[in-house]
Amino acid sequence: MKSAHICQFIRDIYKTDQFIPLHAPTFSGNEKRYVADTIDSTFVSSVGKYVDEFETEMEQYTGAVKAVAVVNGTAALHTALYMAGVERGDLVFTQALTFVATCNVIYHLGAEPIFIDVSKTSLSLCPDALEKYLNQYACLTDKGCVHKQTGQRIRAVMPMHTFGHPAEMDELLVICHQWQLIMVEDAAESLGSVYKDKHTGTMGEYGAISFNGNKIITTGGGGVVLCASQQSGKRVKHITTTAKVPHAYEFYHDEPGFNHRMPNLNAALGCAQMEVIDDLLASKRLLASQYSEFFAGSDIQFVEEPCYAKSNYWLNAVICESLESRNTLLNETNDSGVMTRPVWTLMHHLPMFKNALRGDLSYSEWLSQRLVNIPSSALILDK
Ligand SMILES: *Cc1c(COP(=O)(O)O)cnc(C)c1O
Asked: What is the pLDDT of residue 46?
Protein backbone atom coordinates (compact mmCIF):
# COMPACT_ATOMS: atom_id res chain seq x y z
CA MET A 1 0.00 0.00 0.00
CA LYS A 2 1.29 3.47 -0.92
CA SER A 3 2.21 5.85 1.93
CA ALA A 4 0.31 8.67 0.21
CA HIS A 5 -2.88 6.64 0.43
CA ILE A 6 -2.28 5.99 4.14
CA CYS A 7 -1.56 9.68 4.83
CA GLN A 8 -4.74 10.71 3.04
CA PHE A 9 -6.79 8.24 5.09
CA ILE A 10 -5.31 9.59 8.33
CA ARG A 11 -5.84 13.20 7.23
CA ASP A 12 -9.48 12.41 6.45
CA ILE A 13 -9.94 10.95 9.93
CA TYR A 14 -8.35 13.90 11.72
CA LYS A 15 -9.79 16.39 9.20
CA THR A 16 -6.62 18.50 8.99
CA ASP A 17 -3.86 19.53 6.58
CA GLN A 18 -1.61 20.40 9.53
CA PHE A 19 0.99 18.20 11.27
CA ILE A 20 -0.61 15.12 12.84
CA PRO A 21 1.14 13.94 16.04
CA LEU A 22 1.37 10.34 17.21
CA HIS A 23 -0.60 10.95 20.38
CA ALA A 24 -1.85 14.29 21.67
CA PRO A 25 -3.85 14.70 24.88
CA THR A 26 -7.49 15.81 24.78
CA PHE A 27 -8.92 18.32 27.27
CA SER A 28 -12.64 18.46 26.74
CA GLY A 29 -14.03 18.58 30.28
CA ASN A 30 -13.33 20.21 33.63
CA GLU A 31 -9.53 20.29 33.32
CA LYS A 32 -9.14 24.09 33.43
CA ARG A 33 -11.69 24.48 36.20
CA TYR A 34 -10.07 21.94 38.56
CA VAL A 35 -6.51 23.13 37.89
CA ALA A 36 -7.58 26.76 38.46
CA ASP A 37 -9.22 25.63 41.69
CA THR A 38 -5.88 24.37 43.05
CA ILE A 39 -4.28 27.73 42.21
CA ASP A 40 -7.14 29.75 43.74
CA SER A 41 -6.93 27.65 46.91
CA THR A 42 -3.05 27.81 46.97
CA PHE A 43 -3.05 24.00 47.45
CA VAL A 44 -0.98 23.18 44.38
CA SER A 45 1.54 20.89 46.02
CA SER A 46 1.63 18.08 48.57
CA VAL A 47 -1.64 18.96 50.34
CA GLY A 48 -5.13 19.12 48.84
CA LYS A 49 -8.26 17.14 48.10
CA TYR A 50 -7.56 16.12 44.49
CA VAL A 51 -4.87 13.53 45.28
CA ASP A 52 -7.26 11.58 47.54
CA GLU A 53 -10.05 11.96 45.00
CA PHE A 54 -7.85 10.78 42.16
CA GLU A 55 -6.70 7.73 44.12
CA THR A 56 -10.29 6.81 44.95
CA GLU A 57 -11.25 7.24 41.29
CA MET A 58 -8.44 4.89 40.28
CA GLU A 59 -9.53 2.27 42.81
CA GLN A 60 -13.15 2.44 41.68
CA TYR A 61 -12.30 2.41 38.01
CA THR A 62 -9.70 -0.39 37.98
CA GLY A 63 -10.99 -2.42 40.93
CA ALA A 64 -7.55 -2.26 42.61
CA VAL A 65 -7.68 -2.63 46.39
CA LYS A 66 -5.47 0.43 46.84
CA ALA A 67 -4.11 3.09 44.47
CA VAL A 68 -1.29 5.46 45.38
CA ALA A 69 -0.64 8.48 43.12
CA VAL A 70 2.99 9.30 42.36
CA VAL A 71 5.00 11.76 40.23
CA ASN A 72 5.36 9.60 37.11
CA GLY A 73 5.06 6.09 35.75
CA THR A 74 8.76 5.43 36.28
CA ALA A 75 8.43 6.28 39.99
CA ALA A 76 5.40 3.98 40.13
CA LEU A 77 7.43 1.11 38.62
CA HIS A 78 10.36 1.84 40.91
CA THR A 79 8.12 1.78 43.98
CA ALA A 80 6.36 -1.39 42.81
CA LEU A 81 9.62 -3.31 42.31
CA TYR A 82 11.04 -2.01 45.60
CA MET A 83 7.90 -3.19 47.38
CA ALA A 84 8.17 -6.57 45.63
CA GLY A 85 11.48 -6.96 47.48
CA VAL A 86 13.80 -6.63 44.50
CA GLU A 87 17.26 -6.10 45.96
CA ARG A 88 20.85 -5.55 44.88
CA GLY A 89 22.08 -8.53 42.86
CA ASP A 90 18.59 -9.90 42.05
CA LEU A 91 17.30 -10.74 38.59
CA VAL A 92 13.94 -9.65 37.14
CA PHE A 93 12.25 -11.09 34.03
CA THR A 94 10.97 -8.56 31.52
CA GLN A 95 10.72 -7.84 27.79
CA ALA A 96 13.43 -6.59 25.45
CA LEU A 97 10.61 -4.94 23.54
CA THR A 98 9.61 -2.19 25.98
CA PHE A 99 10.22 1.45 26.84
CA VAL A 100 13.55 1.97 28.62
CA ALA A 101 11.94 2.99 31.94
CA THR A 102 10.97 -0.65 32.58
CA CYS A 103 14.64 -1.63 32.68
CA ASN A 104 16.01 1.55 34.23
CA VAL A 105 14.09 0.91 37.44
CA ILE A 106 15.51 -2.62 37.63
CA TYR A 107 19.02 -1.16 37.20
CA HIS A 108 18.51 1.54 39.82
CA LEU A 109 17.54 -1.05 42.42
CA GLY A 110 20.90 -2.72 41.78
CA ALA A 111 19.20 -5.63 40.04
CA GLU A 112 19.50 -6.87 36.45
CA PRO A 113 16.93 -7.75 33.79
CA ILE A 114 16.58 -11.08 32.02
CA PHE A 115 15.03 -10.46 28.61
CA ILE A 116 12.31 -12.79 27.37
CA ASP A 117 10.64 -12.71 23.96
CA VAL A 118 7.17 -11.27 23.36
CA SER A 119 4.24 -13.33 22.13
CA LYS A 120 2.58 -13.06 18.74
CA THR A 121 -0.80 -12.81 20.45
CA SER A 122 -0.19 -9.77 22.62
CA LEU A 123 3.25 -8.37 21.71
CA SER A 124 3.77 -8.63 25.49
CA LEU A 125 5.81 -11.07 27.62
CA CYS A 126 5.44 -14.59 26.18
CA PRO A 127 4.51 -17.25 28.79
CA ASP A 128 5.92 -20.11 26.69
CA ALA A 129 9.26 -18.36 26.25
CA LEU A 130 9.38 -17.55 29.98
CA GLU A 131 8.63 -21.14 30.96
CA LYS A 132 11.24 -22.47 28.55
CA TYR A 133 13.90 -20.18 30.02
CA LEU A 134 13.02 -21.15 33.59
CA ASN A 135 13.10 -24.88 32.81
CA GLN A 136 16.51 -24.50 31.24
CA TYR A 137 18.25 -22.02 33.54
CA ALA A 138 16.46 -21.81 36.90
CA CYS A 139 15.96 -23.96 39.97
CA LEU A 140 13.98 -23.63 43.17
CA THR A 141 16.03 -23.48 46.36
CA ASP A 142 15.37 -22.44 49.96
CA LYS A 143 16.02 -18.83 48.93
CA GLY A 144 13.47 -19.06 46.14
CA CYS A 145 14.03 -19.12 42.40
CA VAL A 146 17.73 -19.05 41.51
CA HIS A 147 19.61 -18.75 38.22
CA LYS A 148 21.66 -21.93 37.84
CA GLN A 149 24.57 -20.28 36.02
CA THR A 150 25.00 -17.08 38.03
CA GLY A 151 23.58 -18.13 41.41
CA GLN A 152 21.53 -14.92 41.54
CA ARG A 153 18.04 -14.89 42.99
CA ILE A 154 15.28 -14.30 40.42
CA ARG A 155 12.73 -12.22 42.25
CA ALA A 156 10.01 -10.95 39.94
CA VAL A 157 8.33 -11.09 36.54
CA MET A 158 7.43 -7.75 34.98
CA PRO A 159 5.35 -8.03 31.81
CA MET A 160 4.56 -4.81 29.95
CA HIS A 161 1.15 -4.60 28.26
CA THR A 162 2.52 -3.37 24.94
CA PHE A 163 0.60 -0.45 23.36
CA GLY A 164 -2.27 -1.35 25.72
CA HIS A 165 -2.71 -4.99 24.64
CA PRO A 166 -2.97 -7.19 27.76
CA ALA A 167 -0.38 -9.96 28.19
CA GLU A 168 -1.49 -13.59 28.65
CA MET A 169 -1.89 -13.12 32.38
CA ASP A 170 -3.40 -16.45 33.50
CA GLU A 171 -0.47 -18.36 32.02
CA LEU A 172 2.07 -15.90 33.44
CA LEU A 173 0.48 -16.02 36.90
CA VAL A 174 0.62 -19.83 36.96
CA ILE A 175 4.34 -19.66 36.17
CA CYS A 176 4.90 -17.05 38.91
CA HIS A 177 3.16 -19.30 41.39
CA GLN A 178 5.13 -22.40 40.39
CA TRP A 179 8.48 -20.63 40.47
CA GLN A 180 7.89 -18.37 43.51
CA LEU A 181 8.20 -15.20 41.48
CA ILE A 182 6.38 -11.97 42.26
CA MET A 183 4.23 -10.47 39.51
CA VAL A 184 4.65 -6.73 38.95
CA GLU A 185 2.74 -5.38 35.94
CA ASP A 186 4.11 -2.53 33.86
CA ALA A 187 0.67 -1.24 32.92
CA ALA A 188 2.07 2.21 32.08
CA GLU A 189 0.35 2.19 28.68
CA SER A 190 -2.76 0.20 29.44
CA LEU A 191 -5.14 2.13 31.71
CA GLY A 192 -8.62 0.98 30.66
CA SER A 193 -7.44 -2.29 29.10
CA VAL A 194 -9.20 -5.36 30.42
CA TYR A 195 -7.89 -8.95 30.54
CA LYS A 196 -10.93 -11.26 30.66
CA ASP A 197 -12.82 -9.30 33.35
CA LYS A 198 -9.87 -7.69 35.15
CA HIS A 199 -8.12 -4.38 34.58
CA THR A 200 -4.44 -4.52 33.70
CA GLY A 201 -2.32 -3.58 36.69
CA THR A 202 -4.64 -5.34 39.18
CA MET A 203 -3.65 -8.97 38.61
CA GLY A 204 -0.14 -8.92 40.07
CA GLU A 205 1.03 -7.93 43.55
CA TYR A 206 1.61 -4.46 42.14
CA GLY A 207 0.84 -2.60 38.94
CA ALA A 208 2.22 0.70 37.65
CA ILE A 209 0.35 3.11 35.38
CA SER A 210 1.66 6.30 33.73
CA PHE A 211 -0.17 9.57 33.13
CA ASN A 212 2.53 11.19 31.03
CA GLY A 213 1.27 13.60 28.36
CA ASN A 214 1.25 10.95 25.63
CA LYS A 215 -0.69 8.29 27.57
CA ILE A 216 -4.43 7.61 27.39
CA ILE A 217 -5.15 10.13 30.14
CA THR A 218 -2.65 12.62 31.48
CA THR A 219 -1.88 14.50 34.69
CA GLY A 220 0.95 16.40 32.99
CA GLY A 221 3.38 14.01 34.62
CA GLY A 222 2.12 11.33 36.92
CA GLY A 223 1.64 7.72 37.77
CA VAL A 224 -0.13 5.40 40.13
CA VAL A 225 0.88 2.26 41.99
CA LEU A 226 -1.96 -0.26 42.15
CA CYS A 227 -1.73 -2.57 45.16
CA ALA A 228 -3.36 -5.94 45.79
CA SER A 229 -3.90 -5.44 49.54
CA GLN A 230 -4.78 -2.65 51.99
CA GLN A 231 -1.60 -3.42 53.92
CA SER A 232 0.72 -3.04 50.93
CA GLY A 233 -1.21 0.05 49.84
CA LYS A 234 -0.59 1.66 53.23
CA ARG A 235 3.11 0.93 53.01
CA VAL A 236 3.34 2.28 49.46
CA LYS A 237 1.72 5.52 50.61
CA HIS A 238 4.15 5.66 53.53
CA ILE A 239 7.38 5.09 51.58
CA THR A 240 6.36 7.36 48.69
CA THR A 241 5.77 10.22 51.15
CA THR A 242 9.19 10.19 52.91
CA ALA A 243 8.08 7.55 55.46
CA LYS A 244 7.01 10.29 57.86
CA VAL A 245 5.19 9.13 60.95
CA PRO A 246 2.09 11.32 61.38
CA HIS A 247 2.46 13.84 64.20
CA ALA A 248 1.22 17.37 64.82
CA TYR A 249 4.73 18.86 64.57
CA GLU A 250 7.52 16.29 64.93
CA PHE A 251 9.57 15.17 61.92
CA TYR A 252 10.12 11.47 62.48
CA HIS A 253 10.74 9.04 59.60
CA ASP A 254 10.91 5.32 60.32
CA GLU A 255 12.57 4.00 57.11
CA PRO A 256 14.36 5.41 54.03
CA GLY A 257 11.45 6.84 52.04
CA PHE A 258 11.01 8.39 48.61
CA ASN A 259 9.45 11.72 47.73
CA HIS A 260 7.31 10.30 44.95
CA ARG A 261 4.00 11.92 45.89
CA MET A 262 1.87 13.39 43.10
CA PRO A 263 1.20 17.12 43.55
CA ASN A 264 -2.41 18.29 43.95
CA LEU A 265 -2.08 20.40 40.78
CA ASN A 266 -1.48 17.27 38.70
CA ALA A 267 -4.15 15.25 40.47
CA ALA A 268 -6.71 17.97 39.64
CA LEU A 269 -6.00 17.46 35.94
CA GLY A 270 -6.29 13.70 36.47
CA CYS A 271 -9.70 13.97 38.17
CA ALA A 272 -11.04 15.90 35.18
CA GLN A 273 -9.51 13.39 32.74
CA MET A 274 -11.11 10.46 34.57
CA GLU A 275 -14.53 12.07 34.02
CA VAL A 276 -14.08 11.59 30.25
CA ILE A 277 -12.09 8.33 30.12
CA ASP A 278 -15.05 6.35 28.76
CA ASP A 279 -15.40 8.81 25.87
CA LEU A 280 -11.65 8.61 25.21
CA LEU A 281 -11.71 4.82 25.16
CA ALA A 282 -14.76 4.72 22.87
CA SER A 283 -13.09 7.14 20.49
CA LYS A 284 -9.91 5.07 20.42
CA ARG A 285 -11.76 1.83 19.77
CA LEU A 286 -13.60 3.49 16.89
CA LEU A 287 -10.29 4.72 15.47
CA ALA A 288 -8.76 1.22 15.79
CA SER A 289 -11.71 -0.34 13.97
CA GLN A 290 -11.35 2.23 11.15
CA TYR A 291 -7.65 1.40 10.80
CA SER A 292 -8.40 -2.33 10.94
CA GLU A 293 -10.90 -2.05 8.09
CA PHE A 294 -8.59 0.20 6.07
CA PHE A 295 -5.56 -2.10 6.21
CA ALA A 296 -7.56 -5.36 5.81
CA GLY A 297 -6.28 -7.44 2.90
CA SER A 298 -3.30 -5.14 2.25
CA ASP A 299 0.43 -5.82 2.58
CA ILE A 300 0.36 -3.99 5.91
CA GLN A 301 -1.02 -5.84 8.94
CA PHE A 302 -2.92 -3.88 11.59
CA VAL A 303 -2.21 -5.08 15.15
CA GLU A 304 -5.50 -6.25 16.71
CA GLU A 305 -6.26 -6.76 20.40
CA PRO A 306 -5.84 -10.36 21.69
CA CYS A 307 -9.09 -12.35 21.56
CA TYR A 308 -9.26 -12.69 25.39
CA ALA A 309 -8.92 -8.95 26.01
CA LYS A 310 -10.41 -5.54 25.49
CA SER A 311 -7.52 -3.22 24.70
CA ASN A 312 -7.42 0.54 25.23
CA TYR A 313 -5.66 0.75 21.83
CA TRP A 314 -3.33 3.35 23.33
CA LEU A 315 -0.98 3.32 20.34
CA ASN A 316 -2.16 1.81 17.08
CA ALA A 317 0.46 -0.26 15.32
CA VAL A 318 0.99 -1.89 11.96
CA ILE A 319 3.43 -4.57 10.82
CA CYS A 320 5.17 -4.05 7.46
CA GLU A 321 6.44 -6.86 5.24
CA SER A 322 10.12 -5.95 5.53
CA LEU A 323 12.63 -3.52 7.01
CA GLU A 324 12.77 -1.73 3.63
CA SER A 325 9.01 -1.23 3.40
CA ARG A 326 8.97 -0.12 7.05
CA ASN A 327 11.65 2.50 6.34
CA THR A 328 9.78 3.72 3.28
CA LEU A 329 6.60 4.11 5.30
CA LEU A 330 8.41 5.93 8.14
CA ASN A 331 10.19 8.31 5.77
CA GLU A 332 7.23 9.13 3.56
CA THR A 333 4.68 9.64 6.33
CA ASN A 334 6.99 11.79 8.49
CA ASP A 335 8.01 13.82 5.41
CA SER A 336 4.39 14.64 4.74
CA GLY A 337 3.63 15.72 8.31
CA VAL A 338 1.94 12.53 9.53
CA MET A 339 3.91 11.35 12.54
CA THR A 340 4.80 7.66 12.69
CA ARG A 341 7.47 5.94 14.75
CA PRO A 342 9.33 2.62 14.81
CA VAL A 343 9.12 0.57 17.99
CA TRP A 344 11.72 1.31 20.71
CA THR A 345 15.27 0.05 20.12
CA LEU A 346 15.27 -3.36 21.82
CA MET A 347 16.70 -3.12 25.33
CA HIS A 348 19.59 -5.55 24.75
CA HIS A 349 20.79 -3.27 21.92
CA LEU A 350 21.21 -0.33 24.35
CA PRO A 351 24.74 0.01 25.80
CA MET A 352 23.68 -0.36 29.44
CA PHE A 353 21.78 -3.61 28.89
CA LYS A 354 23.87 -5.21 26.17
CA ASN A 355 25.32 -7.82 28.53
CA ALA A 356 22.02 -8.73 30.19
CA LEU A 357 20.89 -12.35 30.35
CA ARG A 358 18.30 -13.27 27.74
CA GLY A 359 16.30 -16.04 26.14
CA ASP A 360 15.70 -16.38 22.42
CA LEU A 361 14.49 -12.95 21.24
CA SER A 362 13.80 -13.77 17.60
CA TYR A 363 10.19 -12.53 17.48
CA SER A 364 11.17 -9.24 19.22
CA GLU A 365 13.95 -8.81 16.61
CA TRP A 366 11.55 -9.64 13.77
CA LEU A 367 8.97 -7.15 15.05
CA SER A 368 11.46 -4.38 15.68
CA GLN A 369 12.31 -4.36 11.96
CA ARG A 370 8.69 -4.17 10.84
CA LEU A 371 6.53 -2.45 13.43
CA VAL A 372 5.32 1.13 13.00
CA ASN A 373 3.11 3.15 15.35
CA ILE A 374 0.59 5.37 13.59
CA PRO A 375 -1.38 8.42 14.81
CA SER A 376 -3.59 7.44 17.72
CA SER A 377 -4.95 10.59 19.40
CA ALA A 378 -8.56 10.33 20.53
CA LEU A 379 -11.03 12.42 18.56
CA ILE A 380 -13.30 14.21 20.96
CA LEU A 381 -15.16 17.33 20.02
CA ASP A 382 -14.73 20.25 22.40
CA LYS A 383 -17.83 20.74 24.50
C1 LIG B 1 5.38 5.68 29.57
C2 LIG B 1 6.00 4.43 30.04
C3 LIG B 1 6.68 4.36 31.27
C4 LIG B 1 7.08 5.54 32.09
O5 LIG B 1 6.13 6.44 32.43
P6 LIG B 1 6.54 7.94 32.78
O7 LIG B 1 5.29 8.48 33.37
O8 LIG B 1 6.92 8.61 31.50
O9 LIG B 1 7.66 7.90 33.76
C10 LIG B 1 7.13 3.12 31.71
N11 LIG B 1 6.96 2.01 30.98
C12 LIG B 1 6.33 2.05 29.79
C13 LIG B 1 6.16 0.78 29.04
C14 LIG B 1 5.84 3.25 29.27
O15 LIG B 1 5.26 3.27 28.07
From this structure: 86
- Segments making up each domain of the chain, as ranges: 3-26+276-374, 31-274
Residue 133: pLDDT band (50, 70, 90) is very high
CA angle 269, 270, 275 (to 5 degrees): 100
CATH topology (fold) of 31-274: Aspartate Aminotransferase; domain 2 (3.40.640)
Residue in 79, 100, 102 to alter for ligand 1 test, most ligand atoms within 8 A of Cβ: 102
The conformation of residue 180, written as its DSSP 8-state character, comes to T
From the alpha carbon of 72, which atom of ligand 1 is closest? 7
Q: How many CA atoms within 13 Å lie on the side-chain side of 192?
A: 24
Q: What is the CATH number of domain 3-26+276-374?
A: 3.90.1150.10
> Running DSSP on this structure, what letter comes out for residue 351?
G
Q: How far is the CA of 310 from the centre of ligand 1 (A)?
A: 21
What pLDDT score was predicted for residue 381? 57
Cα–Cα distance between 259 and 158 in angstroms, integer? 23
Active-site positions read 215
Whole-number Å distance, alpha carbon 2 to ligand 1 midpoint, is 32
Pick the residue whose CA is nearest to atom 14 on ligand 1: 188
What is the pTM (predicted TM-score) of this model?
0.97
Taking the C-alpha atoms of residue 176 and residue 70, their distance in angstroms, rounded to an integer, is 27
